[in-house]
Amino acid sequence: MISPDLNNNNLIYTCRAIVLDYAIDIHNLTESDQIFLGGPLGNFSLAGFEMVLSRHVSHYIINYYLPSGLFVVVSWISFLVPADVIPGRIRILCTLAIVCKTFPSKEL
């Protein structure tokens, strides 16, 4: 549910139902942005708001970079298994292939 709050002439929306990848700040237009100088067409008044999006970086590190790095480390471990132990190497690489196939489709 989204609920608007009026705080210091800034309209702030808080959302408790959806986890966003961004922090959203909504501000009123400044005095200089409320007038459009159209040259020979004249001056025009504008109405609107400014929306500032700030990305949460930790979300990407935890959900993408860290698992991808672990996949690389697991694939390197398969090189440490002796070449004559074929079932062990195949088991490691098949498990890694299955995880890589399902990794992009997981719900975040």
Give a written overview of the molecule:
With 108 residues, the protein is of the alpha+beta class. It folds into 2 domains: 2-55, no CATH class; 59-102. Helix content is 38%, strand content 30%. The chain contains 2 helices and 6 strands, in the order E-E-E-E-E-E-H-H. It has helices at residues 57-80, 86-102, and strands spanning 2-7, 10-15, 22-28, 35-37, 43-45, 49-55. The strands form 3 sheets. It has a two-stranded antiparallel ribbon with strand order 1-2. A two-stranded antiparallel sheet has the order 3-6. Strands 4-5 form a two-stranded antiparallel sheet. It is rod-shaped and about 80 Å long. The chain starts with a strand and ends in a 6-residue tail after the last helix.
Which class do the helix and strand fractions yield?
Answer: alpha+beta
End-to-end gap: 20 Å
Question: What is the number of E strands?
Answer: 6
Number of helices: 2
The largest sheet, given as strand count, sense and whether it forms a barrel, is: 2 strands, antiparallel
- Give the overall form: rod-shaped
The percentage helix is: 25-40%
Order of strands in the sheet with most strands: 1-2
Task: Work out the count of structural domains.
Answer: 2
- Low-confidence runs (pLDDT<50, min 5 residues)? none
Radius of gyration: 26 Å
Give the overall average pLDDT.
Answer: 78
Q: Give, in order, the helices and strands.
A: EEEEEEHH
Residue share in β-strands: 25-35%
